[in-house]
Each structure stands twice: as structure tokens, then as C-alpha cells.
Amino acid sequence: MKILVLGSKGQLGQCLYDQLSHTDHEVLYTSRLQIDIADFESTQIKLLHIDPDAVINATAYTAVDKAEEEHQTADLINHLAVANIASICDKLDCFLIHVSTDYVFDGNSELPYTESDQTNPQCVYGDSKLKGEIAIQSSGCKYIIIRTAWVFSEYGNNFLKTMMSLSAERNELRIVGDQVGCPTYAQDIARTIRVIIESFKLKKVHSCLYHFSGNFCCSWAEFAQNIFDEALKLDVIASKPNVIAISTKEFPTQAKRPSRSELSSKNISYAFGIKPSDYTLGIRSSLMAIKNKTY
Ligand SMILES: NC(=O)c1ccc[n+]([C@@H]2O[C@H](COP(=O)([O-])OP(=O)(O)OC[C@H]3O[C@@H](n4cnc5c(N)ncnc54)[C@H](OP(=O)(O)O)[C@@H]3O)[C@@H](O)[C@H]2O)c1
User: Fold this and answer.
1) Environment class of residue 53 by beta-carbon count within 10 Å: exposed (0-12), middle (13-18) or buried (19+)?
2) What is the pLDDT of residues 138-193, one digit of tens each?
3) Which of 81, 130, 170, 207 is the most interior residue, by most CB within 10 Å?
4) pLDDT per residue over 98-121, tens digit each?
5) Helix, strand, coil tally for the chain in percent (to 5)
6) What is the three-state SS of 252-281?
7) So what's the pLDDT on residue 100?
8) Are 184 and 148 in contact (CB under 8 A)?
9) Angstrom distance (rounded) from CA 15 to CA 27
10) Are 261 and 107 spatial neighbours (Cβ–Cβ below 8 Å)?
């Protein structure tokens, strides 16, 4: 298959390179420099010329707090440009694999969110991502949308990497302890996408939206604690900072985040035999890659 990756320099984009480069597929990795999805006309010309069998959209406007002010840019990248890509995929009759977020939910449910649960984004970023999902679903193109959460890895900017940097500077860290989610290793999202692509050859894959996240839910403070515990075990750090759990009120941010957003990965497990992302293994693998500079 000919596969086009958009946003190849992002966190997920780089994991897609790791997971797809040793397959038999012809994969074209493009960053903003090669394809700027905000330029609709040029994106259309380039996609029509490449004529892929599948497009993986790893681009996004992911600055959750900044989006509260830059709502037009968030809407352009996460909604309007996605609508344009979906419409081109429809013309090309190619599959669009797209990634979305748990921030489409309000976080008021005590139960894990399923794909059919009511969405109710609380921030501009979540709202723009939801509009992107809806645009794909109404475009007529063949699609798989994967909603995921709290993405971390050895690449890019993410919570694990921020914690590692802060641990070098401070003995004590005050981290939010009343927001709960399921951290998801980006390499596992990329692996999941590889499995879905492999299954195109084996069976008819129907357009669908799935949830995929980590197998352990925790607060940001617990996540930080677990990162430091593993980092100490693996000799990535010499000592652990003291983690103090604080409330969201004590750490106000521009964007409102869901207080509890556990995603149920049952449907994707059933459809493709994919297990939820292994939280502990993900932390270890990221730390080992950082320690050995293998990324
Ligand atoms: N990170 C999380 O915690 C999280 C949680 C839930 C869901 N998600 C979703 O997971 C997906 C992957 O996220 P990620 O963490 O890999 O994000 P990321 O590291 O921020 O990567 C996003 C990529 O999109 C690119 N991009 C932005 N605007 C573009 C444009 N106009 N044209 C082409 N490329 C453009 C960026 O390029 P530049 O580097 O040039 O800016 C960047 O490489 C996204 O759909 C995100 O919404 C992420």
C-alpha cells in the first residue's frame, strides 16, 4: 500500500516512522514544510498527485491553553483543514486515519467513556477536534478515527519529558492531583495504526470511530510519581523530587480540562485484537530511549 503520513515531525509522526519504516508499505512522511494542511489548494494538488491508498493525519494544533486565544488557528488546523483532507480522501477513494482526543468529553462521567457517549467539550481545543471528527464523518470518505489521551513518548514535548526536565532543576514539584486520565504511549498508538493498516489486506474494514488509551488511569501527580519511580530504578535520575498533589484550583489554566476522562478501549480490542497501551512499559520504554539517546 502507498501510505501518506501528514505531520511526520510531531510526537505521533515520529513514532509512525519507527513503526512503519520496516513494513512492506511504501510510506511517504511529510512535515509542514512539504505539506502545510492550512493551505487547502496546495494540499489538494499534492495529495491528488501522490494518490495514496491511505492518509494518516498526525497533524494537529495541540497547544490546549493557547487555543483559548488562538481559536481561529485551532479551528483552521483541527477542523477546516481536516474537512479539506477528508474531502480529498473521498475523491481519491482512500482511507483516512485520523487521531482525536478525550477532551471532546466534559469529564463528568464516573464510567469509562465509550464511543457512543455524549460529547461536550469544555475548551476550544476539544471543540475544534470534535468538529474535525464530525467533518470526517460527514465527508463520505472511508475513515478510522482514534480518540486517545494524555499522549507521552521519548519524542516531542509531553508530560513525561517535562517531568524529566523539572526533576533536574527542582527538589519539590506541585502537580495537579484531581484530574484523572489514562496516559497513552505514542508508540502504541502508532502500532495500533500499523495493525489497522495491515488488516486492510485481510478483511473489509468499515469506517468507524474508536477509543484507544493506556491500561491504567491516574492523576497527573500519580503519573509524575510513577515516572520518577521508574526513572530512579533505571538510573535515569539520581534522586526523585518530592511530588505534592495539588488541586486544579491551585493551578489555574486558560483551558478547562475534563476532571475524569477514562476511555474504554474495548471496541478497538474486539475489532482488531489490539490491547490497550501498557502504561508501565510505555514509561520504561520512553525513559530507556531518553537514557540511551536512541531517538
Ligand atoms: N499530545 C497529547 O497529549 C494528545 C492527547 C490526545 C490526543 N492527541 C492527538 O494526537 C495527535 C498527535 O498529537 P501529537 O502529540 O503527536 O502532537 P504534536 O507533537 O503537537 O504534533 C503535531 C504536528 O502537527 C504539525 N502541524 C501543525 N500544523 C500543521 C500544518 N498547518 N501543516 C502541517 N503540519 C502541521 C506540527 O508541525 P510543527 O512541528 O511544524 O508545528 C506537529 O509536527 C493529534 O491529533 C492530537 O490532537 C494528543
Assistant:
1) middle
2) 999 999 999 999 999 999 999 999 999 999 999 999 999 999 999 999 999 999 99
3) 81
4) 999 999 999 999 999 999 999 999
5) 45, 20, 35
6) CCCCCCCCEECECCHHHHHHHCCCCECHHH
7) 98
8) yes
9) 13
10) yes
Mean pLDDT of the chain: 97
pLDDT digits (tens, 9 = 90+) for 246-269: 999 999 999 999 999 999 999 999
Q: Is 7 exposed, middle or buried (0-12, 13-18, 19+ CB in 10 A)?
A: buried
Cell of 30: 511529510
Residue 62 Cα to ligand 1 middle (Å): 6
Which residue puts its alpha carbon closest to atom 48 of ligand 1?
Answer: 151
Q: Whose CA is nearest to atom 7 of ligand 1?
A: 101
Residue 37: is its pLDDT beyond 90? yes
Ligand 1 neighbours, Cβ below 6 Å, are: 7, 9-13, 32, 36-38, 58-62, 77, 99, 101, 129, 148-151, 156
Nearest to 214 by CA among 133, 286, 142: 286
Compute the distance from residue 30 Cα to the ligand 1 centre, in Å: 13
The domains located in the chain, with CATH, are: 2-158+184-216+261-278 (3.40.50.720)
The answer to whether the beta carbons of residues 123 and 259 sit under 8 Å apart is no
Residue 125 falls in the annotated catalytic set = yes
Residue the block writes with cell 526533576: 167
**Looking at the whole model, is its pTM more than 0.90?**
yes
Crossing angle of helices 159-169 and 220-233, rounded to 10°: 70
